[in-house]
Amino acid sequence: MPAAASPRGGIPAWLLAGLCLCASVGLTTPVLARVMPQHLYQSYCATCHGTDRMGGLGPPLLPEDLMDLPRNQAAVVIAKGLAETHMPGFSDELSMEQIDALVRFIYARPAVQARRAARAYSAASRRVELACPWIR
Ligand code: HEC
After folding, report:
1. Could you tell me the pTM of the whole model?
2. pLDDT tens digits for 59-84?
3. Tell me, what DSSP letter sits at residue 67?
4. What is the distance in A from the centroid of ligand 1 to the CA of 59?
5. Relative to the CA of 106, which ligand 1 atom is closest?
């Protein structure tokens, strides 16, 4: 009895699945990179500076609140903390890359952040759809 013909013209299903997995990982990584500072902020900073960055125990961290603080200074504050205040240093827990990402994050308006993340997300899912048209 002949083997049933593959529905995809002979390309083995495992190969398709593998290709698709690689494509989705490769194409969505940039999205994670953009969304990451948001997660870092919520895990490390939100308890004191507020989930919406409006402040709490620590001051608000929105662009208009940071106008007098140069960005490189903000990176030093995040890495080393502020002596004799409740602001801890994060150089043991966060890499310089993560601190830079957080600096960019707190100097951008929340609406801009949300737009950027949404745009990155839809661009990546479009690319995944193009690479894997059978995923809908
Ligand atoms: C335990 C509470 C606490 C946590 C957690 C915390 N901060 Fe702070 N932060 C403070 C306090 C309090 C100040 C104000 C210190 C002062 O000048 O009196 C501050 C100040 C700052 C400043 C300086 C603001 C300015 O206008 O000068 C920056 C920037 C900052 N924090 C960023 C962060 C970031 C980013 C995180 C997360 C990685 C974080 N903080 C986590 C309590 C905290």
Report:
1. 0.75
2. 999 999 999 999 999 999 999 999 99
3. T
4. 7
5. 35
